[in-house]
């Protein structure tokens, strides 16, 4: 396992020349952080392509599963990603762009303080084996500062459990979440994730008193799975509720599809990136409950309506021809061609609980 990361502003995290052993292989590699130095991630830049990697997740861990200090990578499909407290810091798929935090916001890692993140673990899901003799070096470049930030970044992961019958035009996997955090969170970007049957994913802020909804994000999981700006910045706290819906089409498929970690299975994941108070805020939350009858009735009729086709994004998600330009971006707002929803008040039109669980995307 590599030693502590050097004290520079840019940290390069790479898979160590991995050779996936089989299709749908999950491989992890770990990077030890300075136990005395608290740091803050302010930007994520991606080095990788969907040609090799189905997805990549960056987790912050208290410990790592591998027991050998000389192990540079391990199978984390059949074994755990982390030991002790675990939280997701970033997720990527389909040649998506990187993400830059708003001013005064950073994901807190390292040190002996509140972060509890002693290791960074990169997990890559390889849907198929590589060509003979080929190795993979997929990874991330992190912009990191030791300057304390006013706010800490966090992820709220909403999870649904799809069960999709064959030859069906519209199947929904709904999930509802009453927030439990007493310290407000400010959601500013969201990433949606499903596999091949996914057609559209939506998330709403729901008022249980008026039964009204407001759109947070509407995304196409077949486009680059980046963290896209939400329709506006949403401040939410205990008592607020979020409704999510993943919609699928199984037309042309003759067998049932269930939730699972392989490329042939399906998923319903919505990652909400937020910032919160650095002293009292929660840095990772996972939520997803069966919706009650009132929540079920609150979904707008157009929640199942896919976004208009975008051949550029659909092609880019597969072959990544724009990858070099997009993966060096410095802001979520610098590429309106990949933003699915126009923020309210903007003039430009849209062009088109800490745990020990293992995270698969």
UniProtKB/TrEMBL annotation:
<feature type="domain" description="Copper type II ascorbate-dependent monooxygenase C-terminal">
    <location>
        <begin position="152"/>
        <end position="299"/>
    </location>
</feature>
<dbReference type="Pfam" id="PF03712">
    <property type="entry name" value="Cu2_monoox_C"/>
</dbReference>
<feature type="binding site">
    <location>
        <position position="195"/>
    </location>
    <ligand>
        <name>Cu(2+)</name>
    </ligand>
</feature>
<keyword id="KW-0732">Signal</keyword>
<keyword id="KW-0560">Oxidoreductase</keyword>
<dbReference type="GO" id="GO:0006518">
    <property type="term" value="P:peptide metabolic process"/>
</dbReference>
<feature type="domain" description="Copper type II ascorbate-dependent monooxygenase N-terminal">
    <location>
        <begin position="12"/>
        <end position="128"/>
    </location>
</feature>
<dbReference type="Pfam" id="PF01082">
    <property type="entry name" value="Cu2_monooxygen"/>
</dbReference>
<feature type="disulfide bond">
    <location>
        <begin position="246"/>
        <end position="268"/>
    </location>
</feature>
<protein>
    <recommendedName>
        <fullName>peptidylglycine monooxygenase</fullName>
        <ecNumber>1.14.17.3</ecNumber>
    </recommendedName>
</protein>
<dbReference type="InterPro" id="IPR000720">
    <property type="entry name" value="PHM/PAL"/>
</dbReference>
<keyword id="KW-0479">Metal-binding</keyword>
<feature type="disulfide bond">
    <location>
        <begin position="61"/>
        <end position="82"/>
    </location>
</feature>
<keyword id="KW-0964">Secreted</keyword>
<dbReference type="InterPro" id="IPR000323">
    <property type="entry name" value="Cu2_ascorb_mOase_N"/>
</dbReference>
<feature type="binding site">
    <location>
        <position position="54"/>
    </location>
    <ligand>
        <name>Cu(2+)</name>
    </ligand>
</feature>
<dbReference type="InterPro" id="IPR036939">
    <property type="entry name" value="Cu2_ascorb_mOase_N_sf"/>
</dbReference>
<keyword id="KW-0503">Monooxygenase</keyword>
<keyword id="KW-0325">Glycoprotein</keyword>
<feature type="binding site">
    <location>
        <position position="267"/>
    </location>
    <ligand>
        <name>Cu(2+)</name>
    </ligand>
</feature>
<dbReference type="GO" id="GO:0016020">
    <property type="term" value="C:membrane"/>
</dbReference>
<feature type="disulfide bond">
    <location>
        <begin position="28"/>
        <end position="76"/>
    </location>
</feature>
<keyword id="KW-0186">Copper</keyword>
<feature type="disulfide bond">
    <location>
        <begin position="177"/>
        <end position="287"/>
    </location>
</feature>
<keyword id="KW-1015">Disulfide bond</keyword>
<feature type="binding site">
    <location>
        <position position="193"/>
    </location>
    <ligand>
        <name>Cu(2+)</name>
    </ligand>
</feature>
<feature type="binding site">
    <location>
        <position position="55"/>
    </location>
    <ligand>
        <name>Cu(2+)</name>
    </ligand>
</feature>
<dbReference type="InterPro" id="IPR014784">
    <property type="entry name" value="Cu2_ascorb_mOase-like_C"/>
</dbReference>
<dbReference type="InterPro" id="IPR008977">
    <property type="entry name" value="PHM/PNGase_F_dom_sf"/>
</dbReference>
<dbReference type="GO" id="GO:0005576">
    <property type="term" value="C:extracellular region"/>
</dbReference>
<dbReference type="InterPro" id="IPR024548">
    <property type="entry name" value="Cu2_monoox_C"/>
</dbReference>
<dbReference type="GO" id="GO:0004504">
    <property type="term" value="F:peptidylglycine monooxygenase activity"/>
</dbReference>
<dbReference type="GO" id="GO:0005507">
    <property type="term" value="F:copper ion binding"/>
</dbReference>
<feature type="binding site">
    <location>
        <position position="125"/>
    </location>
    <ligand>
        <name>Cu(2+)</name>
    </ligand>
</feature>
<comment type="similarity">
    <text>Belongs to the copper type II ascorbate-dependent monooxygenase family.</text>
</comment>
């Amino acid at each position: 396992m590599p030693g502590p990361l050097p004290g520079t502003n840019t940290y390069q995290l790479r898979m160590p020349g991995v050779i996936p052993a089989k299709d749908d292989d999950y491989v992890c590699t770990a990077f030890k952080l300075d136990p005395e130095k608290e740091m803050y991630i302010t930007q994520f830049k991606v080095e990788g392509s969907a040609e090799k990697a189905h997805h990549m997740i960056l987790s912050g861990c208290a410990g790592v599963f591998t027991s050998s200090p000389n192990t540079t990578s391990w199978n984390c499909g059949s074994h755990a990603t982390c030991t002790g407290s675990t939280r997701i810091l970033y997720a990527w798929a389909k040649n998506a762009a990187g993400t830059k935090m708003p001013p005064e916001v950073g994901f807190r890692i390292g040190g002996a303080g509140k972060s509890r993140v002693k290791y960074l673990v990169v997990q890559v899901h390889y849907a198929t084996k590589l060509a003979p003799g080929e190795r993979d070096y997929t990874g991330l470049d992190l912009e990191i500062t030791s300057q304390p930030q006013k706010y800490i970044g966090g992820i709220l992961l909403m999870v649904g459990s799809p069960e999709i019958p064959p030859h069906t035009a519209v199947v929904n996997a709904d999930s509802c979440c009453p927030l439990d955090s007493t310290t407000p969170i400010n959601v500013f970007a969201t990433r949606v994730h499903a596999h091949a049957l996914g057609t559209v994913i939506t998330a709403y802020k729901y008022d249980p008193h008026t039964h009204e909804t407001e759109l947070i994000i509407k995304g196409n999981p077949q486009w680059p799975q980046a963290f896209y700006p939400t329709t506006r910045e949403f401040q939410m706290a205990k008592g607020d509720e979020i409704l999510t819906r993943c919609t699928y089409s199984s037309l042309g498929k003759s067998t049932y599809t269930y939730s699972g970690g392989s490329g042939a299975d399906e998923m319903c994941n919505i990652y909400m990136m937020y910032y919160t108070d650095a002293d009292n805020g929660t840095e990772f939350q996972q939520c997803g409950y069966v919706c009650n009858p009132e929540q079920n009735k609150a979904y707008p009729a157009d929640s199942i309506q896919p976004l208009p086709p975008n051949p550029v994004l659909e092609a880019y998600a597969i072959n990544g021809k724009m990858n070099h330009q997009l993966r060096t971006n410095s802001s979520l707002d610098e590429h309106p061609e990949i933003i699915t929803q126009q923020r309210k008040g903007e003039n430009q039109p849209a062009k088109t609980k800490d745990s020990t669980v293992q995270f698969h995307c």
